[in-house]
Design a protein that fits this description.
Layout (H helix, E strand, L loop, with lengths): L2 H10 L1 H12 L6 H10 L18 H14 L7 H14 L2 H12 L5 E4 L15 E5 L2 E8 L10 E7 L10 E7 L5 E6 L8 E12 L3 E2 L5 H17 L49 H9 L6 H29 L7 H24 L13 H5 L4 H13 L10 H12 L22
Parallel strand pairs: 1-4
Antiparallel strand pairs: 2-3, 3-7, 4-5, 5-8, 6-7
C-alpha cells in the first residue's frame, strides 16, 4: 500500500488509524499518567478538538466511535470529566495559543481535573443574574461570592469561573470567564448530599480568592459569549446521551482523586466488550435492550403497557441518534441546525423520565429499596433483581437532574422560541438595565 493510499484509508476511517496506534502504544504496565500522556499528545483523548489544539478534528460521531474502540481494544480510556468535555473545547475556541498550551494539554493528559463554577443560589435558570464579584487589583482579580451545584468540585484542580467584572453594565455584558485555581486559600468546597445517597455536587465559597488576569479566557466582560460555548458543549453532550462516563472511563483525572500513579491495566474493564469494535454495518441491538431484558427478568415482557413503553423508549432513543446523525451531515456540508443542542437536550430529558417511569413499572415495589450508603449496598443487591434493579432505582432517583442542570427544560424552550423561532421575548424584559439597578427578590 502506498503512502497516499494509506492516508486516504485513515481519512475515510479514523478508527483504523487509532487501532494501529493502540497496537504500537498500549502498555498496561504504564501508570495512568504515562498512558494518558501518550493518548492525549497523540490527539486521541479529545479527538473532536482541532489537530493544532491536541485533537484530531473528528466529528462527534467519530469521536464517540474512537472512545468505544479504545475500550473494545482493552485499553484505558481518556481522562473524561468536565475538563475534557467543557473546558478544553471552550479554551480551544476562545483561548490564546499560550492558554491552550497551559490548560488544554493538562486536560487531555489527565494531569488536571476541572469543575464548572457557573450556578449560584440566586442565579440558576437565570445564569446571567450571577453576583459573584471579581475586582481587579493590578494583575490579579479578587473573587468573592458563592457557587452551588458544582459537580466534582471536591476533586477539581481548576474551575471554569463566571464572575461579574462590571456591575454597571447590563447583566449579560458585565461577566468574565476565568480559569480559577481551586487549591488556594479563600476557596472552600462543601459537599451536598443528594437523595441518591451520593455527594457529587458541592457548594463553593470564595473569600478573597485570586485569579491572574492571564487566566481570563476571552475578552474582559465578554464572558457570556464564552459561557455560551461551554453551555453548547454541555447541552450537546447531554442531548447525545453523554451525561455520564463513556466506555473506558474508569479513572478520574487530576491530582486529588489519586489515580495518576496507579497501573493503567488495573483500571480496564474486562469481559464486557467484544475484542474488536463492531463494524458500522453490523445490525445494532435495540437502544432499549437493557429495559427489554429487565422486563424478561421480571416476567413483564408480555404486559401490553410495558411493551408500549419499551417501543416508545426505543423510538425516542432512535430519534436522538438520528438527530445526532442529521447534525453531523449538516456540519459536513458547512451548514448547521439552529437550536439542535437545545432540541437534543429536551429530547434526552424526556428519555430520562421515560426510562425512570418504565423501569419502576417493571420492577414494581422492588424499586422502593435503595442503599444510601456503600456499606448497605450488598443487602439490596441480594434481593430479587440484583444489580439490575438497584440500577433502576438509582436512575429513578437521579432522573430529576438532567432536566434541570445545563439549563432547565423551560429555559431550553425559551431559547428555542426566541433564538430559533424568532418569537418575542417575555414581557418585562430587563436585559438592557445595568445589573446594579436590577430589582432583587426580597
Amino acid at each position: 500500500m502506498t503512502a497516499t493510499e494509506d492516508e486516504s484509508t485513515h481519512e475515510a476511517d479514523p478508527i483504523a488509524e487509532l487501532l494501529g496506534w493502540l497496537e504500537e502504544n498500549w502498555d498496561p504496565d504504564l501508570t495512568v499518567a504515562q498512558w494518558w500522556e501518550r493518548l492525549g499528545l497523540a490527539g486521541w483523548s479529545a479527538p473532536m478538538l482541532p489537530p493544532d489544539r491536541y485533537g484530531r478534528g473528528l466529528s462527534r460521531r467519530d469521536a464517540l466511535r474512537a472512545t468505544r474502540a479504545i475500550a473494545a481494544f482493552g485499553a484505558l480510556g481518556p481522562p473524561g470529566g468536565l475538563g475534557l468535555g467543557l473546558a478544553a473545547p471552550t479554551i480551544a475556541i476562545h483561548g490564546t495559543p499560550e492558554q491552550v498550551e497551559r490548560y488544554v494539554r493538562d486536560i487531555v493528559t489527565g494531569k488536571k481535573a476541572w469543575c464548572q463554577l457557573f450556578s449560584e443560589p440566586g442565579a440558576g435558570s437565570d445564569l446571567a443574574g450571577l453576583s459573584t464579584r471579581a475586582v481587579r487589583d493590578g494583575d490579579v482579580w479578587v473573587i468573592n461570592g458563592q457557587k452551588v451545584w458544582t459537580s466534582g468540585g471536591h476533586l477539581a484542580d481548576l474551575g471554569m469561573l463566571l464572575a461579574r467584572t462590571h456591575p454597571e453594565a447590563p447583566k449579560h455584558q458585565g461577566i468574565t470567564w476565568f480559569a480559577l485555581d481551586m487549591h488556594q486559600p479563600g476557596v472552600e468546597v462543601r459537599p451536598l448530599r443528594q437523595m441518591t445517597g451520593a455527594a457529587n455536587f458541592n457548594e463553593v465559597f470564595f473569600t478573597d480568592a485570586v485569579v491572574s488576569d492571564d487566566a481570563r479566557i476571552g475578552d474582559l466582560n465578554n464572558g457570556w459569549t464564552v459561557a455560551n460555548t461551554t453551555l453548547h458543549y454541555e447541552r450537546s453532550g447531554m442531548g447525545a446521551g453523554g451525561d455520564g462516563p463513556g466506555p473506558g472511563f474508569s479513572a478520574v483525572p487530576g491530582t486529588v482523586a489519586g489515580y495518576l500513579d496507579r497501573r493503567a491495566g488495573d483500571l480496564v474493564h474486562r469481559g464486557s466488550r467484544p475484542a474488536t469494535p463492531q463494524p458500522a454495518h453490523v445490525r445494532r441491538s435495540s437502544p432499549a435492550a437493557a429495559q427489554i431484558e429487565l422486563a424478561r427478568v421480571f416476567g413483564k415482557q408480555t404486559d401490553p403497557v410495558i411493551r408500549q413503553g419499551l417501543v416508545r423508549l426505543h423510538t425516542l432513543r432512535e430519534l436522538s441518534r438520528m438527530n445526532t446523525e442529521r447534525h453531523r451531515a449538516a456540519l459536513a456540508t458547512g451548514s448547521d441546525i439552529r437550536g439542535i443542542a437545545n432540541f437534543s437536550k429536551l429530547l434526552m430529558a424526556d428519555i430520562v423520565r421515560l426510562t425512570r417511569d418504565l423501569g419502576m413499572q417493571i420492577v414494581g415495589t422492588r424499586g422502593t429499596l435503595h442503599a444510601y450508603r456503600d456499606e448497605d449496598r450488598s443487602m439490596v443487591t441480594e434481593q430479587p433483581g440484583g444489580e439490575a434493579a438497584v440500577a433502576v432505582t438509582s436512575q429513578a432517583l437521579g432522573a430529576q437532574a438532567l432536566p434541570i442542570f445545563g439549563g432547565t427544560d423551560q429555559i431550553q424552550r425559551n431559547i428555542i422560541g426566541e433564538r430559533v423561532l424568532g418569537l418575542p421575548k417575555e414581557p418585562g424584559d430587563l436585559s438592557g438595565m445595568p445589573f446594579s439597578q436590577l430589582p432583587r427578590n426580597g
